[in-house]
Design a protein that fits this description.
alpha+beta; eight-stranded mixed beta sheet; 20 strands; 26% strand; globular
Length: 386
């Protein structure tokens, strides 16, 4: 009988956990290295929510990955025995007629997605907490919602531990792709048949030239709000809000499953150090986010700030995912910014398939970047369940 192959994964965020899940399903013995307790409160994956929706501007490749992503999440819910997801639908707004909203609308309709335009008076009738001042275009989508990120990370880690995946708390000083090895702070090195590097904003420092210049950490601010009493019911029934103004857009996640109304910035700061910077948001950072949202809110001054914090993304210039073999037995996962979470189970399945087939490994980067259709066999783990 052949010896069981072993995989070593650096990072227990959503990418590392979904890779561990997919590899364990494929028969690998998996060990996950994480520097802090899971869910790591400093990790890019650990927040109350992450959004999943089809609207993707001109990036039609990612739009077409969303349906397979939903199917992959169904596999996760089946494994966990619960669904950490709330369907909200989507409301997209813009203060101009072109750009991201127009590109999304065209791509969605070309692919057969129900996309309904809203006139300003319809907007305020359906969503009384929002102002129509300055709105040039708006549409709604029925499909889309909030993935309850922190609950997913905690639940998936607990499930994997029952399936034989080993978790080890340790700090790593360097990744050694050519040897499929990691070097720890005590100087010890550990190798495996397969090494997966999914260290989020710590990745460029650990991998060095493989990511330097391609990916940067980016400090992002999230603000949690309490709506005034007259609008609380409206927000509880509201869709996610994507307001993509050219001069600084924001997104809003309605209060779902016991969470607060949350707003965040679509822009990237492209600065900061995830390892040392405080996670508390400064008053100036909070005010910058609130200033983006106030023009859209009726009675904006009545909203109460419940809390605010920073999270860190790993950002690639074109917002294209990096999922590639950097050595024969080493894959790197990086550049997921704020939109990678929704695809994590799908990416994990594709990585597990590519680990078995060099042709699929060569096809993986173009598909993960949203440019190419999946090569035959790349999503075999998904196709076998549908």
């Amino acid at each position: 009988m052949a010896a069981q192959r072993n995989a070593l994964i650096l990072g227990a965020g959503i990418m590392g956990l979904c890779s561990a899940w997919a590899l364990a399903r494929a028969g690998w013995q998996v060990r996950v290295i994480e520097q802090a307790p899971i869910p790591n409160p400093r990790g890019a994956s650990v927040d109350q929510h992450r959004l999943i929706r089809h609207a993707y501007g001109a990036q039609a490749g990612y739009m077409r990955m969303v349906d397979p992503a939903y199917a992959a999440w169904e596999m996760i819910w089946a494994a966990l025995g619960t669904r950490h997801y709330v369907e909200t639908g989507v409301l997209a707004l813009a203060n101009h007629q072109g750009g991201w909203l127009a590109e999304s609308r065209a791509a969605l309709r070309a692919d057969g997605h129900a996309c309904a335009d809203l006139a300003p008076d319809q907007l305020t009738t359906r969503f009384p907490m929002l102002s129509d001042t300055g709105i040039a275009a708006a549409f709604t989508l029925p499909r889309g919602g909030a993935l309850l990120a922190e609950r997913i990370v905690a639940g998936l880690a607990a499930h994997l531990a029952t399936q034989g995946v080993v978790f080890e708390a340790a700090e790593v000083t360097a990744a050694l792709p050519d040897r499929a090895a990691l070097r720890f702070t005590n100087g010890v090195e550990r190798s495996a048949d397969l090494l997966i590097l999914s260290a989020g904003p710590w990745g460029p420092r650990l991998l060095g030239t493989g990511l330097t210049g391609r990916v940067v950490p980016s400090r992002q601010i999230l603000v949690r709000l309490e709506a005034p009493p007259e609008f609380r019911a409206a927000w509880e029934a509201a869709p996610m809000l994507l307001d993509l103004a050219e001069d600084g857009g924001f997104y809003a996640v309605p209060p779902v499953a016991g969470t607060a109304l949350k707003i965040g910035d679509h822009r990237f700061s492209r600065q900061g150090d995830a390892g040392v910077d405080p996670r508390a948001a400064t008053p100036a950072e909070i005010e910058e986010i609130l200033a983006l949202a106030r023009p859209r809110l009726i009675n904006a001054g009545a909203y109460r700030v419940l809390g605010a914090q920073a999270c860190y993304y790993d950002v690639e210039d074109r917002e294209e995912f990096i999922l590639e073999a950097v050595a024969p037995s080493c894959f790197v996962m990086s550049g997921f910014s704020g939109h990678g979470f929704k695809f994590a189970p799908l990416l994990g399945l594709a990585l597990a398939a590519a680990a078995e087939d060099t042709a699929l490994a060569r096809a993986l980067p173009g598909w993960a970047a949203g440019r190419d259709a999946p090569a035959p066999g790349l999503l075999a783990g998904l196709e076998s369940t549908t």
